Amino acid sequence: IPICCVGYGDSCVYLDLQVSEAELVFNRHRREGHTFPVSVYNKILQSWVKKGSQLRAVMLFESMVRDGVDCNAQTHAIMLVLHTRRKNWDAAKKIVARMESEGYPLKHILQMAQLSKTEAAEVLKAMDHFRVSAEKLPRQVGPYPRVVRSLYDDWSRESDTERPGEVTSGEEKSEERLGVGVASVKVFSPDELKDRLRRQLQMEQQGYLSAPSIAAVHKTDSPEEEALKESTHRLMRQWRRDLTAALKRDNEDFKTVVKCLPALGSKFFGPKQYPFLLLLPAEVWADIVVEEVVVHILGQQQGLPLTFLCRLICDSAWHKYVVLQKKQRGVVEKTSQLYQQFMSHLATPSPPHLPHRQLWQDMDDALASAGSLSVDIPKWPFTVASYVGAGLLSRLIDTAKLSLSDDCNGEAAFFHSYEAGENGWQAGHVKGHQKLFKLFKKYYIKHESTHFRLAAELTPMLIPPRPWSQVNEGGYFVNPVSIMRSVADVYQHHSLLQQAPNLNAVFDSLNVLGTCSWRINTRILDLVTEIFNRGGNDDLGVPVRDPVFPEGLENQEPSRRRDAQMKKLSNECYSLWMDMLYRLSLANYFRDDLFWMPHNMDFRGRAYPVPPHLSHLTSDVGRAMLQFGTGYPLGDKGLDWIKIHLVNLHGHKKKGSLKERVEYADEMMEHIMDSADRPMEVS
């Protein structure tokens, strides 16, 4: 399937722009023997209905029937919306009859199709006309595998048992049935929970979280540094303004000659690029390029591959496009309303004894008249990223000029070059002017890194995640996350997941993991931060900024192999140092707060937290900085197991029995407590 054609058609449909052109491209690929999923037909059909073109919509629908395309619930719902708007009840009656024969009864269509709020309102009008009441679609609860069923039953009976040394009230037992995160949520008042939901939705719609760096320089800038700061900010503002103006001119030129689209072409963008560029305002595109790409380029003096930058641009733009679509279709509004009801049900003294997935689906079905939470937006493949990203980078190179002093005024700030890659291939790179690196080295890297912009889908959540109910519906509220991790542009995995008959056991397992609340161990965080700001310590797992090279290297003969190894070691050290800086800065941001981590899995079925920087599945340093948000008593043997774990880390009693390890820990308890009280002092 020509994936790029799917994305192009989706863009044209969303913009109400040249739908006939999108249909021409679509039909040309059909004549060449390509086959398309029914979702592509539905996109074009939905666009004709949105434009009110009954003739073109009916012609396309009849073509689908004639060609043997398997029309699904979405197809019939779109045609029903068309005839309802025009009050063509005879045609609507035929569509309803066809729906019944195909297994899509009208009473269930609101739950079976992905409709916007306005489309759902039209379907309700049709139900009123035909005197049909909307009914809840029966959801498949099982079957569970035998082992999973046993675990689920144990979890359900957990309220009837007590942990050793613990007396649990009836209300606490009720909380435990629904996951350990429920008890943590109850510390918030309804107003606080509503405010945290608002902040979470705002962060996801914004697309990033701004976290202060723990390595920030806290001092008053000198006059020279103030001048450097102003020069840096002035350059960034000028590049953003110039790039925005250039993109606006390109967009206006495209709109004026849209009728002769096949003949349209320019120095920077071709006809197949413009629909993607029009999806977002020029200011947003300029912000993506300047704020994200420019910083990446100036962070690497040797430049960055063109393909990497193109993918970076389009991934960020696609996420913003998804958020924009969800806002316009009412998904964000319904999600907020649904989640507040969901948490209210869990906070009641006797919450319903249902898995979170089933409770969420039941509440979603009750609000089916507000539209569907699912939005079918095709991921932009690398083909789209390459020609859209390359056009934007070309525009940046053309518009971004240096204005640091009179001797460099008007010079290009960035340029494109080719570097020899593997197997002798030439790879395109984008590099910055040498004078820019001097400026950034003096000020930008030192001062502007006081805040990090972390993608919202890579940060923990302020509230428990949305329960997984479909393979692409769960975790975050607005940001799209797949239930299975896969390499970019590998679409077979997602296709197979969609065809899986029943993944309820997987959904429920990930939902239980996601309800676990976390907090930061501030003592460990402060200790690791102190070691990090002192320069790091490899023996303690805290990376250093620069590697230590043997003395006297400057007096030795030049060696390309040695230089390459030293460069590789320096890059690895810097990468590890930056990873720890991100981890510590994010942990410091959440140091006094509860947070939650949505989970997904890899192709082997192993579950991982989606946020990579704060995770319990990481190094010892990363795990040491985390604590459970809700603590429980250790029980009779809990302290012994902590002693055993401590001795295992020490490595002295590797061949000793468990009893011997506990006895050894008791013998060394005075030294253990002294190390805990004074970790940086030698006794």
Automatic annotation (TrEMBL):
GO terms for cellular component: mitochondrial DNA-directed RNA polymerase complex. Its EC number is 2.7.7.6. Keywords: DNA-directed RNA polymerase, Nucleotidyltransferase, Transcription, Transferase. The keyword Iron does not apply. It catalyses: RNA(n) + a ribonucleoside 5'-triphosphate = RNA(n+1) + diphosphate. Gene3D superfamilies: 1.10.287.280, DNA-directed RNA polymerase, N-terminal domain, Tetratricopeptide repeat domain. InterPro entries: DNA-dir_Rpol_C_phage-type (IPR046950), DNA-dir_Rpol_phage-type (IPR002092), DNA/RNA_pol_sf (IPR043502), RNA_POL_N_sf (IPR037159), RPOL_N (IPR029262), TPR-like_helical_dom_sf (IPR011990). GO terms for molecular function: DNA-directed RNA polymerase activity; mitochondrial promoter sequence-specific DNA binding. GO terms for biological process: mitochondrial transcription. This is DNA-directed RNA polymerase. The lineage of its organism: Eukaryota, Metazoa, Porifera, Demospongiae, Heteroscleromorpha.
